[in-house]
Prior knowledge:
Blueprint (H helix, E strand, L loop, with lengths): L13 H12 L3 H7 L4 H9 L18 H14 L1 H20 L2 H13 L4 E4 L15 E5 L2 E11 L7 E8 L2 E8 L5 E6 L10 E11 L13 H36 L1 E2 L2 E2 L4 H29 L5 H27 L10 H11 L6 H16 L2
Parallel strand pairs: 1-4
Antiparallel strand pairs: 2-3, 3-7, 4-5, 6-7, 8-9
Helix pairs in contact: 1-4, 4-5, 4-7, 4-8, 5-6, 5-7, 7-8, 7-9, 7-10, 8-9, 9-10, 9-11
EC number: 1.-.-.-
Protein name: Acyl-CoA dehydrogenase family protein
Organism: Nonomuraea marmarensis
Amino acid sequence: MTLTATAPVQVVDKRSARAFVDTHVMPYADDYDRIGRVPEDLLRQVAAAGLWAPFLPAESGGAGMDLVTLGEVHEEVGRGCSSLRSLLTVHTMVAWTVQRWGTPGQRERWAPALAAGDVLGAFCLSEPGAGSDTAAITTTAVERGDGWLLNGVKKWTTSGQRADLFLVFARTAGSIGAFLVPRNAPGVQVRPIDDMLGTRASMLAEISFQDVVLGPDALLGPSGFTAGMVLTGTLDLGRYSVAAGSVGIVQACLEASAAYAAHRRVGGKALAELPLIQAKLSDMVTDARAARLLLAEAGRLKDAGESSTIMATWIAKYFASTAAVRHAAEAVQIHGANGCSPDYPVARLYRDAKVMEIIEGSNEIQRITIAGQAEREMTR
Ligand SMILES: Cc1cc2nc3c(=O)[nH]c(=O)nc-3n(C[C@H](O)[C@H](O)[C@H](O)COP(=O)(O)OP(=O)(O)OC[C@H]3O[C@@H](n4cnc5c(N)ncnc54)[C@H](O)[C@@H]3O)c2cc1C
């Protein structure tokens, strides 16, 4: 199924994204969580607001947005609904990859449709037997005639139930290739994965590819191009978006907790007057600001084309995701029993936050990477 944007692409910034989220997302995020999907109407509104891929250049249908601003926009979406932010993240990864690594023909065919939200993208790397260990993927793409024959199974594909275009990583003779695979290609099968712990409306799926025949134009980049650079760059941008979404979760925890603590009275006092509660709120304020600054630093380095952005993004994501888990737990605590009920958003924030420590580089992999870099720098 495809979407048709009904309004021209808008220029988005943090303020307009916040207004969009407050009106169209925040009031309904718990419902999306309960029904396990983001409704088509909202996807259309995201398209009309120009939120799908505003970083693409104008000739590809985007608004040429810088990556600092993109981070701010994804923070706002993450503040409202991590499931929607997850859909945005994987779509961003696909649109960016097409723009950055695609041939002129691939860009012309896909980029404007991705910018308009007429085509939604999903990112297929993980497999039943390969997650952190990306080198263990077993999906194969074998050259056949002037095209490819794709076989394998991808798991945990965010937006897999909904997306129209899959960016699939597969083994080729002696390398790994990145392939653009339309959902409706014969041999593609989608098995929904529902009832996850968090980001429950992000429409995950297991995707199997059985003798899927692809043309030569499915392979990203010129012939002989390996997917290593594509993987590094695409995962880096996805990680940046997840870091932004995690900052949004901390901010949402702060806003929900401050509002609740101002009104809930215990022993004749508002919770907000109690020193132990004030300590929790002040830690949320401080970590939200610190996480936002780390994210902005990573974004500035991206905009400047500095390769050090990759480590800055690892650090931003590590800090923001662990802060999200810590503060979501405290937000539930501040709400007491209400925090465990479906009547307040903090239970959802708590479940969503945990996912942030697993996706786009788990916490353990982040620590290994950050420590490895520190060791290299110290022993130079
Ligand atoms: C909600 C959700 C959405 C997702 N969306 C996508 C998607 O759109 N596309 C996609 O391709 N994938 C997606 N994934 C998969 C995700 O990328 C993987 O879950 C992640 O890479 C971790 O892999 P794994 O789950 O196989 O864990 P494993 O790799 O099996 O790791 C298990 C545990 O061991 C730890 N570990 C691994 N290696 C080491 C080590 N060397 N030292 C110490 N500890 C280690 C890990 O940190 C983890 O805690 C999604 C996952 C979730 C939960």
